[in-house]
Amino acid sequence: MTSVDMGIPVVRHRADDVSDRPDVPELLDRFGRVARDLRVSLTEKCSLRCTYCMPAEGLPEIPRAKLLTTDEIVRLVRVATGRLGVHEVRFTGGEPLMRRDLEDILAGCARETPGLPMALTTNGVGLEHRARALAGAGLTRVNISLDTLDREHFARLTRRDRLGSVLAGIRAAAAAGFARIKVNAVLMPETLAGAADLLEWCLAEGVELRFIEQMPLDADHTWARARMVSAEALLDVLGQRFTLTETEREDPSAPAERWFVDGGPATVGIIASVTRSFCADCDRTRLTAEGTVRSCLFSDRETDLRAALRGGASDDELAALWRGAMWNKWAGHGMDAADFAPPQRSMGAIGG
Questions:
Q1: How many independent structural domains does the chain possess?
Q2: Following CA atoms 58, 8, 299, 93 in sequence, which dihedral angle do they give, to the nearest 10 degrees?
Q3: For position 12, what pLDDT does the model report?
Q4: What is the mean pLDDT of the chain?
Q5: pLDDT tens digits along 123-145
Q6: Neighbours of 34 (CB within 10 A)
Q7: What is the C-alpha separation between 54 and 37, in angstroms, rounded?
């Protein structure tokens, strides 16, 4: 059934037929892929209004009662890791720093699943004030969004003049001692000329830079492939200043292709989601902020775990619903198909 919650399209449905699914505990799909990487969106709220993600007024508010609570998030993470074979969790948004209970969520997950690698994708605004507490709660890795070092360009793209806060957040993350810090930059025509400057800055700061092809996940649905900056165009620009040598992916399911910069050991990554699709190796499963399983960023089909959880479902029952949702995952996003249609929900509403 399709409905609209506070202006945000939401799809609720019963699990599809899974009678042909093998009796295995992992999050297997019909194409043989196994999801081991869980993305948890914590909120639709954000401190920025990036043009490729959110409308100027922000996304419609999700009522607090419909958001997963701290304890519910911890329980679902425990189910995912204990029963479904998930071995890594990333918390996203919206902007996860907008959750005041973020440290409690991390600490609860760390307590229930000791040793679990936990990562955060954030815009970095306000991170300087919380980085040490987040590390203390169990966070191990941070990805921080930064598309340009030009203050005017930053303000136009994000509709907020907060570049200084983001840079301070990156440096605070480094000081907090996270095992890994990555900077994510979305490729756009207006920032391509500054891409080499951004890479140079990241090299000097000792953080990894990854460029991401812009995908049709914007709330305003203005994305056009003809205007998109491709990985090849970026490589041409970077190659004018740096010597780039392609190297192996970190693992087969990692989305980023990597290049050594000037012989290494520093690398730059490119996630070519559009021009070099990696759907065949996708190992991700997603929870929206309202507690629905989304098997693919580009699918509007969601399976509601929150209703089952609040209705008294056992961990085994929650796991069975989750397995059913992932068994019916699409083969790929289909962006090259003539009838491709972007999902109703933007990136800000469903997490990255």
A1: 1
A2: 40
A3: 43
A4: 88
A5: 999 999 999 999 999 999 999 99
A6: 17
A7: 25
Measured CA to CA, the distance from residue 165 to residue 155 in angstroms comes to 12
Domain extent, residue 216, equals: 2-350
Could you tell me which of 93, 39, 74, 112 has the C-alpha nearest to residue 318?
74
pLDDT in tens, 32-67: 999 999 999 999 999 999 888 888 888 888 999 999
Cα 205 to Cα 129, 183, 321: the distances in Å are 19, 11, 44
CATH of the domain at 133: 3.20.20.70
Q: Which two tokens stand for residue 162?
A: 């907060």
Write phi, then psi, for 91 (nearest 5 degrees).
-100, 130
Comparison of pLDDT for 164 and 18, the residue scoring more: 164
| Terminal CA-CA length for the chain | 24
Helix segments in the chain, DSSP class H: 70-83, 102-112, 131-137, 151-158, 163-176, 195-205, 231-238, 305-310, 315-327, 347-350
Per residue in 320-342, pLDDT (tens digit) is 999 999 998 988 665 655 555 65
Amino acid at 154: F
- 26 contacts: CB under 8 Å, gap ≥ 6: 34, 35, 36, 84, 85
- Cis amide leading into 94 (omega within 30): yes
Cα distance between residue 85 and residue 29, in whole Å: 13
> What value does the mean pLDDT take over residues 141-150?
97
